[in-house]
């Protein structure tokens, strides 16, 4: 459009339309002279279109008429010498009120209409998307059997076409089995990067590992010296909860709405200490999404993340109602930071899956918080340092045996527990201590079975 009318946008930007709605009344547009600069420019353009359509001369009257000198008005005179045709008044209004960047479009639309065509406004698109939309709009009449498909029409169709192809290219023909030496479970349990992600070549890259059904998420990266860092569900809870805490405070709702982070015994002790030190309430639940979810529902804003990457943020309906009413009030009072905070909280609620933890929506949430804070993974990782930990699995035979109950006595700062797995025939040991050596020793000691 800008190529058809190259002068329009620069001129429109030089004379932006005023902050009020202009109406084409009985005698055209009337207002204080200084508010009508943009209108004069635009009515010049409309007069040109009207003249092209009719092939005759038209007029533009600029007059204060019977009003004070400071008032002004602009109206068009039709080829017959009378008032502008009624049908064109709407176009005049649309043009007068279009924001500068939409002006070229408004003109092009009028241009199409004056030759009897109908333009469709596709809204904001990238240039290639517009090209795609044109191609797909003509799919039926276009040449060749592979021109396009009905479901690829429009902007939504563009995403459908590209995203489905992307997923197929990625998944098709690559060797390796689902979750094998990769994925959230591998990264978090073995504390090793996924196969194919290597120190040196991949230093500084931001990586997410999900599980096969995409309800677990962990982040990780190699730093500039090739040391691998894992940001597990606990780090996610720290990132998200501090963000929500800030926004609740900015919204003036930190006393009104309760917020808590729900963790399990697998939460790294350093994460729990970090949250508490920042004045964030921490609640505990048994391992398993259903237990955390249930506990999180008790708060207006319930944040839950298992260390293994399952998690989401739940907002009570009553909290949403509070936010919606504050949104109106903050806007009326023109309190910008407050209004922004309320808007962000409402959109976080829309972004983060309210049904269950969702790796893809969690990625978008983490990314948006990182962007707002101008953080990369190193800054996020530095919120606190994980205590070294070790997880080991023991065979079924041990299920009924008594595990070493005194294991924790090895190191007073350590923590260790054993529980039967709910997903496989095994028991799990988790140990945490001040050093990796001590954590390993603690886990091993816990496995010293006593009859
Ligand atoms: C399941 C649970 C997960 C829990 C894990 C513990 C769901 C959807 N998933 O994956 O929350 O952390 O089991 O596994 O509830 P484990 O009992 O084998 O240690
Ligand atoms: Zn899963």
Automatic annotation (TrEMBL):
<feature type="domain" description="Alpha-D-phosphohexomutase C-terminal">
    <location>
        <begin position="409"/>
        <end position="444"/>
    </location>
</feature>
<dbReference type="InterPro" id="IPR049022">
    <property type="entry name" value="AMG1_III"/>
</dbReference>
<dbReference type="GO" id="GO:0004610">
    <property type="term" value="F:phosphoacetylglucosamine mutase activity"/>
</dbReference>
<dbReference type="InterPro" id="IPR016055">
    <property type="entry name" value="A-D-PHexomutase_a/b/a-I/II/III"/>
</dbReference>
<dbReference type="InterPro" id="IPR005843">
    <property type="entry name" value="A-D-PHexomutase_C"/>
</dbReference>
<dbReference type="GO" id="GO:0006048">
    <property type="term" value="P:UDP-N-acetylglucosamine biosynthetic process"/>
</dbReference>
<dbReference type="GO" id="GO:0046872">
    <property type="term" value="F:metal ion binding"/>
</dbReference>
<keyword id="KW-0460">Magnesium</keyword>
<feature type="domain" description="Phosphoacetylglucosamine mutase AMG1">
    <location>
        <begin position="232"/>
        <end position="375"/>
    </location>
</feature>
<comment type="similarity">
    <text>Belongs to the phosphohexose mutase family.</text>
</comment>
<dbReference type="Pfam" id="PF00408">
    <property type="entry name" value="PGM_PMM_IV"/>
</dbReference>
<dbReference type="Pfam" id="PF21404">
    <property type="entry name" value="AMG1_III"/>
</dbReference>
<keyword id="KW-0413">Isomerase</keyword>
<feature type="domain" description="Alpha-D-phosphohexomutase alpha/beta/alpha">
    <location>
        <begin position="53"/>
        <end position="95"/>
    </location>
</feature>
<protein>
    <submittedName>
        <fullName>Putative phosphoacetylglucosamine mutase</fullName>
    </submittedName>
</protein>
<keyword id="KW-0479">Metal-binding</keyword>
<dbReference type="InterPro" id="IPR005844">
    <property type="entry name" value="A-D-PHexomutase_a/b/a-I"/>
</dbReference>
<dbReference type="InterPro" id="IPR036900">
    <property type="entry name" value="A-D-PHexomutase_C_sf"/>
</dbReference>
<dbReference type="GO" id="GO:0005975">
    <property type="term" value="P:carbohydrate metabolic process"/>
</dbReference>
<dbReference type="Pfam" id="PF02878">
    <property type="entry name" value="PGM_PMM_I"/>
</dbReference>
